[in-house]
Amino acid sequence: MQTKHSFVDQIEETLIALLLGLMTVVTFANVIARFGFNSNILWALELTVFMFGWLVLLGASYAVKKHSHLGVDAILNMVSPGAARVMGIISVGCCLVFSLLLLKGAYDYWAVFADLPPTSGRWFPTGFADKFRSQSFYEVQDVPMVGFLRFLEDLINYGDEYEKLPKVVPYLVLPVSMLLLVLRFAQAAMQIWRGETDRLVASHEVEDEIEEVRAQQGEQG
C-alpha cells in the first residue's frame, strides 16, 4: 500500500513540477524573444495562464492529501481528543459538501465545451439537461491547435477544423481537479473516522511534536 501511495505521489509531484518548469521555460523564452530579438511568442502568455491554473487547481487537492493547507488549530488543541475528532469530522463534512458543489459547477461549465449535457438541479445533480447549447466550437485566443488533438474535430466539433486550441482542453482541469478534491477530502474523512488523525490540517508545531513522539517511540522500540 505504501508503494502504491508513493507511486501516486510521484505522478502528482512530477506533473506539478512539470507545469512549474514549463511555465518558467515559456516565460523565459518569451522574454528572450522580446528583448533579444524584438519579437514575441504570441501564445506564451495565454499558455502560461492556463498552466498556472492547472498548477493551482491540481495543487489544491494534493495539498489536502498532504495536510499542507494553512489552518488554525488553536481550538482543537484546547479540547479533549474526542471533541477534537468530532470537530474534525464536522469540518471535513463541510469541505466535502463544498467540494461537491464545486464539482457540479466545474462539470457543468466544462461539459458544454465538450459537447456534453450539463447536469440538472440547482445545487446537486438530479440528472442531465435535455436541451443545451453546445459550445464545442469555442477556441482559445492565441494557443494554436496541435496535431495530436485533431481527433477532437470529428469527436466533438462535427468535422470542422480548429485553428486554435479548443477550450475543452485547458478547461478539462476544472472537473478533474474538483473530482480529485472530493476524493482527497473523502480520504481525510476516513483518516479522521479511523482515528488516524483528528484534524484536516496540523500546524507546524503539532507536526514537529508528532515527529518527535515517533522518534522517541522508535528509540524505545
From TrEMBL:
In which organism is this protein found? Answer: Shimia abyssi
The transmembrane residues are 15-35, 41-64, 84-103
> What GO terms fall under cellular component here?
plasma membrane
**Keywords tagged on the record:** Cell inner membrane, Cell membrane, Membrane, Transmembrane, Transmembrane helix, Transport
Its annotated function is as follows:
Part of the tripartite ATP-independent periplasmic (TRAP) transport system.
Domain of life of the native organism: Bacteria
User: Alphabetically, which GO biological process terms does the record hold?
Assistant: C4-dicarboxylate transport
Kindly provide the name given to this protein in its UniProt entry. Answer: TRAP transporter small permease protein
Q: How does it assemble?
A: The complex comprises the extracytoplasmic solute receptor protein and the two transmembrane proteins.
Q: Name where it's found.
A: Cell inner membrane
- Please state which protein family the record places this protein in: Belongs to the TRAP transporter small permease family.
